[in-house]
Design goal:
Elements lengths: L2 E4 L1 H7 L5 H8 L3 H8 L7 H11 L3 H4 E4 L3
Helix pairs in contact: 2-3
């Protein structure tokens, strides 16, 4: 089964050391959900993924990576 990896932690750091709470408020999710997504324990909905990418001004592929081999 594949795995979705992400660059959220790096992007938060590069955007003024944004906290998980600040990101959560901007995308209308809970901090706990952002944490789970960041750690790869939860895959976001497509809508949430696009909102996260928009916050960082990145294309979806700049934030999330899918690998079938893992």
């Amino acid at each position: 089964m594949g795995k979705i990896r992400n660059e959220i932690r790096r992007l938060r750091f590069e955007h003024g050391e944004m906290t998980q709470q600040e990101l959560a408020e901007r995308i209308d999710l809970t901090r706990q959900t952002v944490n789970a997504i960041e750690l790869g324990k939860y895959s976001p909905s497509l809508e949430a993924a696009f909102r996260i990418a928009a916050v960082f001004g990145e294309p979806l592929e700049g934030v999330f990576h899918y690998s079938e081999n893992e």
